Amino acid sequence: MDNENPIVTLFGLSFNVTNTIVIISACVIVFLITFICTRNLQIKPTGKQNFIEWVVDFTGNIASSAMSKQQSEKFRLLGFTVLTFVFVSNMMGLPLMLTIDDYQMWKSPTADPVITLTLAAMVIVMTHYFGVQEQGVKNYFMNSFVRPVPFLFPIKIFEEFTNTLTLALRLYGNIYAGEILLGLIASLAQSQGVLTWIVGIPLGMAWQGFSIFIGSIQAFVFTTLTMVYLSHKVEHEDSTDHIKEAA
User: Fold this and answer.
1) Nearest 5°: phi and psi at 16?
2) Distance from first CA to last CA of the chain, Å, rounded?
3) Which residues cross the membrane (predicted)?
4) Could you tell me the maximum CA-CA distance found in the chain, to the nearest angstrom?
């Protein structure tokens, strides 16, 4: 797990080859799953259509639990995209960790802090964008940073940075730690021949299962917090109505 990632420089910009490969691969996998599951849609869903509709409903429930029904309809597909991308990204390093000439060529994208920080920053910036779109610049600024009392303004600015860091580092820490332990278990299995294989293989399978569980939970948490942060930016006056509706 100490292997470096290959770096390529183009037009004065440095690109991490491994990160580029795994991010594109994650996007392609999500697209293929969605494409395959939405072919030949039927009024009475079966099989793969049942699966994709369940995922859409699941993310819709996440959105509706964080905001009003009207707002959740706008962002349910965003929730679907975030959930599926983060879930696939969390799983990619579990079945395979590829190293070529001491360069790590395959891993989970979310096991890299740069990628998780980028995802988190995109989410936070997006919440501001939709907040301005819903309320206008002046109302958004007043509702998000000045009200209920102006002296909280510095704290609310600081909160935007802490939200970004916690959203990113929670995801990164869990996925990276899982891959580190998988690497250690694999090293243990290969260290002393057949004897350590007998111990290492069941231990590795058990940790694989636990990592799938952790990766699923982290995808759910990331999506839920995305919807919560969005609700804080797009809803203010409607919050009372949402509480009544939820009750």
Assistant:
1) -80, 110
2) 49
3) 20-38, 75-94, 114-132, 180-199, 205-230
4) 69
Predicted TM-score (pTM) of the model is 0.84
Using the 8-state DSSP alphabet, how is residue 5 labeled?
P
d(C-alpha 56, C-alpha 135), whole Å:
27
Q: Which residues of 226-240 are buried (b: 16+ CB within 10 A; e: fewer)?
A: bbbbbbbbbbbebee
Identify the CA nearest to 111 among candidates 34, 198, 176, 205. 176
Q: Quick one: which of 156, 130, 135 has its CA closest to 145?
A: 156
Distance, CA of 65 to CA of 162 (rounded, Å)? 23
Q: Which residues are within 8 A (CB) of 56 and not within 5 positions of it... i.e. 6 or more apart?
A: 76, 77, 80
What is the distance between the alpha carbons of residues 198 and 191, in angstroms, rounded to a whole number?
12
Distance from chain centroid for Cα 98: 22
Distance, in Å, from the CA atom of 107 to the CA atom of 116, rounded to the nearest integer, reads 14
With CA atoms as reference, report the closest residue to 222 among 119, 127, 125.
Answer: 119
Distance separating alpha carbons of residues 247 and 241, to the nearest angstrom: 10
Query: Cα 107 from chain centroid?
Result: 15
Mean pLDDT split into 10-residue runs, the chain, 247 residues: 70 83 94 90 81 91 87 89 94 79 82 93 93 87 82 88 93 90 81 77 86 93 93 67 41
Q: How far is CA 36 from CA 42, 55, 87, in A?
A: 14, 14, 18
Closest CA to 91 of 179, 184, 20: 179
